[in-house]
UniProtKB/TrEMBL annotation:
Ranges for region Disordered: 1-24
Record-given protein name: TetR/AcrR family transcriptional regulator
Annotated organism of origin: Promicromonospora aerolata
Positions with biased composition (Polar residues): 1-14
SUPFAM superfamilies in the record: Homeodomain-like (SSF46689)
Highest rank taxon of the organism: Bacteria
Length: 231
């Protein structure tokens, strides 16, 4: 671990306590600015190369403001992943309410509409490059440090369970279903997207965020296999 790792970020950490506690509006704004700054700093420099000072400077705060919200860079990293998960789930629920009920016409599925549903499970394409880099950094950190790996795996399990349930509810409302069990479908879709996102960054290492969005051709083909009518 780095010398700035102040405390364990496992079960019962302040990541979980902060999410459960009622934050004052001012403190919530401070926390969000730190998270926004960390997203950019970590993506550019990696968690090992980025310092708490760099995050604070980018956010316009002191180290005191940082430590009043997070105990370490690692904890901040996990909070970023948690925030992204919550944003994805909120977007998923929102788009499900906007879809037209005639998504199934003559027994045929409108797969473009299904891809629209799935697109919100991943980060905005405008952030595709930065998020792919962040994701890679987080996975490496989780593999190297059990104190990060445990809560990371717990977050992943929660994300995939909640995303799967949300998508299945939307599909059921539209008269659709997965052709395989929910968890297998979600694992396949997210794994294919994440692999494609990494490849896009490797192929275009200097591209702007919007130009680094992954190719969705394989994902589209997978949707065709995994989604069908409920009849």
């Amino acid at each position: 671990m780095t010398s700035e790792h102040a405390t364990d970020v496992g079960s019962g950490s302040s990541v979980e306590r902060e999410l459960a506690a009622a934050l004052t509006p001012r403190r919530e704004r401070t926390r969000e600015r730190l998270l926004d700054a960390a997203f950019t700093v970590f993506a550019h420099h990696g968690i090992r190369g980025a310092s708490i000072e760099a995050v604070c400077e980018a956010a316009g705060f002191t180290r005191g403001a940082f430590y009043s919200n997070f105990s370490s860079k690692e904890e901040l990293f996990l909070a970023l992943a948690e925030r992204a998960m919550r944003q994805q789930l909120a977007s998923l629920e929102s788009i499900g309410k906007e879809l037209e009920p005639d998504i199934v016409r003559g027994g045929c599925v409108d797969h473009d509409a299904i891809r629209t549903i799935l697109s919100v499970v991943v980060t905005d394409p405008g952030d595709a490059r930065q998020w792919a880099l962040m994701r890679a950094e987080l996975e490496l950190l989780a593999m190297r440090d059990p104190a990060v790996g445990r809560p990371f795996l717990a977050q992943e399990e929660m994300l995939r369970t909640e995303v799967g349930a949300a998508i299945e509810r939307i599909l059921a409302d539209l008269g659709l279903r997965f052709t395989v069990d929910q968890r297998t479908a979600v694992d396949l879709l997210l794994s294919v997207y994440e692999s494609s996102a990494r490849s896009a960054v490797v192929a275009n290492p200097t591209a702007e965020d919007g130009d680094a969005a992954p190719d969705t051709a394989v994902l589209s083909g997978l949707v065709n296999l995994l989604v069908t009518t409920a009849d």
